[in-house]
Each structure stands twice: as C-alpha cells, then as structure tokens.
Write a structure and sequence with these properties.
The protein has 539 residues and is α/β, with parallel strands linked by helices. The chain is built from 24 helices and seven strands. The strands form two sheets. Strands 4-3-5-7-6 form a five-stranded mixed β-sheet. It has a two-stranded antiparallel sheet with strand order 1-2.
Amino acid sequence: MRSSPHPALVFAVVFVIIFVLHLPLLQLPYFWDEAGYYVPAARDLLLTGTVIPHTTISNAHPPLVLAWIALWWKCIGYAPVVTRSAMLLVAAFSLLGVFRLAERVANTSVAIGATLCTALYPVFFAQSSLAQVDLAAAGLTIWGIYAYVDHRPAAAAIWFSLAAVAKETAVLAPVALVAWELLAMTPGNWQKRFGAHPSARRSGKRMLALLLPLLPLAAWYAYHFARTGYVFGNPEFFRYNVAATLNPLRFVIALALRLWQAFGYLNLWVLTIAMLLAMLLPPLRDAGAARPRIAMQTQIVFFVVIGAYMVSMAVIGGAVLARYMLPAIPLVMILAVSTLRRRIRYWPAVVGVVVLAFVFAWFHNPPYGFSPEDNLAYRDYIILHEDAERFLEARYPMAHVLTAWPAADELSRPWLGYTTRPMQVVRIEDFSAEQVLSAAEFRSHFEVALVFSTKYEPPHTLGGHWKTWIDLKRRFFGFHRDLPPAAAAQILGGRIVFSDQRKQQWIALIEMDKGEILDAQERPQPSFPIISLHDISIN
C-alpha cells in the first residue's frame, strides 16, 4: 500500500506552485471590494488596534482574516505583495485541506486530481491572492468537514469555529450537518437504502461540537453591537443583503444561479458533464473487485453542505457572487474526480481536459455576465484604472473629479496604490443615463469626469437583450447599463482626453468645457446627493 505524502510536503508543493502562478499579480493595487472594505478595515486594525473599522462603514464581518493581514503588515510592511503573499498562504492551507479530505474519503490519486482542479478553477484561482474573506472561510470549512468525516468532533468544532470568525456564513456547514444528524436519528427505511449514518448510534456530543461555532460568532456580534449599536452590519448593508432579498421570485432566480455556480460556471460544466457521462459506465475492476466509491453516507454529507449553501446563498446576499459558493466547490470536485477514477480507465486525461478548460477560463471571459473578480478580468480592470488615474493625477492634480465607487476610493486613498496623493472627488452611483443626466445639471462642480464600466457585459449573449430578463435583473440584482464614454461626454458637455479598453471593460477621462467651470471659490454646495456605495455593495 502506497504511503500518503506528508502534509507539510503537500503544503510546500502547493504553495510554491500557486505562488509562481500568481507572480505577475502580486504587485497589483487593490481591487473592488478589497479597496472598498477589507484593506481599509485591516489598515484600521494595524494603525489603531481596533477590530471595528472607522475609515469605512462596518459590515460586521468577523475579524480573523483582517487580523491575519494586519499581522503580516506589522511584521513585514504594508504593500500589496505582502498582502497577496499572505493570502496565498491561506489558499495553500485551504488546498491542503481539500487534499486531506479527498484522501480520507477516497484515495491519494483522487486527492491529487481534486486538489489540482480546485486550485485551477478560475474563481478559486482569482480569489487566492485577493484580500477577501470568502476563500479563507471556505478552506477552514473544508478542514472542519475533514475532521467531521474523520470522527473527530473536537477538531471539527475548532475548525468550524475558526471558519465562523473568518466569515459569518461559514456556520451554514455545521448547522446543516446538525440538521442531517437529527434527520439521521429518525427511524425510517431510507437509512437502510443509503447506509445507516454513524451518528444515528452516537451521543449528542457530535451535535454539540457542531453547534459550538455559534458561540464565538455570537460573542463577536455582541461585541459589535456594543461598539456600533447594530448587530449585522450597518442598516443599509443589512437591507441590501437580507431585507431586500426576501422575495419568492428572486429566490427562485437566485437558486437557479447558485445551481449554475455550483456545477456549471466558468467551464465547471466540463467536469460536471464528464462526471454524468462516466456514471453511465460500469465501475472498473481492479484484481477482480470493483473500484470503490466514496461511502454513500459521506456523499450525502457533501450534498447536504452543497445544498445548504445553494439555498442559503439564494436567500441572502444582495449580489449573487460566485465566491460565496467556494465552500461547496471543493466538494463537487472531490465527488466528480472520484467518479471519473472509478469508471473511466484514462481518467487522468479527462482531468487534464478539465484543467485546460479551467485555465482557458482564466483569460477568456464567458459569453454571459459575470464578476471580473472570478477570473483574470480583475487584472484588466486594475491595469485600466492604474493607467487612467496616473494620467489624471499628472494632468489634473488639483481637479475635482466626478466618478463612482470604487474609483472614488482609488482617487481619495493613495495607500490603495493608484495615486500618490488624494484627489477631490464628486461621487455618483454609476454611469447609467439617469445618474449622468443628474450630474450634468451640476457640471460646474467638477473639471474632469472619470467614467468606466462598472459591470461586465459580453458583446453577444443569448437572452442578453430580452426585456423581461433585463427588468428582473434591474428589480432584484441592481442591474444597470453604463453609458459609453462618447455618450457620457456629450451629456456632460466635455471631451474625451483619455480612453482605453480591455476585453469589454473600458475607462475614459472627460475634460469639462472650461466655459462651464466656476472658480473653486465661487462654487456653491451641490444640492444633488453625493452617493457612496461602498457601504452597501461589499458582501
């Protein structure tokens, strides 16, 4: 019997590989939600020692990941390369958890294939070096599931507790497993069909261990309430992510999107279809015996967690972001790779095709709307904004700039890496026709407009112009269409002095007609609302 590789060796190999693959990305300034919330919050912790941010509105996310980042800044220095390297360590540890779980429920061959697929899946790969909390929570959740299926309730309680203080939604996994434990204890013939769940014959110690992670999360929320006066983030954040999402029709649409993200998104369908086709084949036989499958009760545990995330993330979360499903993705990978190995003789070749499809999706955007943070489109965004904002700072250093979040933060916070000094910003919500027309009425209050694509829209997509679908997206998911730079310039009464585009993302600088500009001393205070979205769009 082949011995298992030592975990330290697996961790070292994984970290070196993903670090080398991310080398071109390590120096990039902070992107989107990094710039809007996580980096400012971690910086506040570094400078003031408080876990409640004050340079941005608190969203009540637990502070474990922010403390991890601040620790590395304290020890090495504040720089994007330090931040991204620290997050890659988290990603490597998460992948070690995937390896150990797959090895425990299947074998080393499946563990290697599942870990490789997980590491190179576009969403996991892109999130690996970003300063956000979802990947860390996912990795700690996987370690918790590993301890759970390994019948170590104390270890499971520790891992799930750490996951909960990385991100609050991580309690979904242990709570779902408690529900499964209770169901498994009820008498029924279904237990004989699927195999009796081991916890049906155990004491309540197992369920108690699964409920313990609620305690540190409750303690965090109590502390947050004592310091801020609200529990689940600021009221606007709670409205956007919970109160405004409780609609049956929205739930159905969001559930369909979560199903797609769990099994089809960004070429994940290649692996899913390969798995389904493999299931039509009989199991291969080694030495006269059929290759073993993952135990049915373990498969059910996996599907319980996957289902819990699909349903819960369809109910909450204003933006249906793919990174929210990261705890479920490794479970899908393990199940699929195990099925391929059991039924297809040349299964490594199939895994190779899947990996190539994933790497292809790093660089090629899909024919449907998606978030740029889910593949290397985020790099295109950063490069566009770096170039435009350096041009802006060099040519108009004292200008008042009309723009929207997150560029408003990029211009006003030099420590995000885009400018060398803060610039004066007039904020609008986005670059839809309504917002630009509203800003045009007060064009005397800014000299330059920095306009950019706030959402990715593919050039051609099936159903992309279907009015009913567009109306539903506007109603439930905040969809809007940004005006192209030429149209924005015409409405604002200016001329384009800089523009660039990369794979359907674009940015432009519009200089206002000098006849429309008042001297700074003569400017009256604007009466239209100056809107900042960073407190409601960070999830």
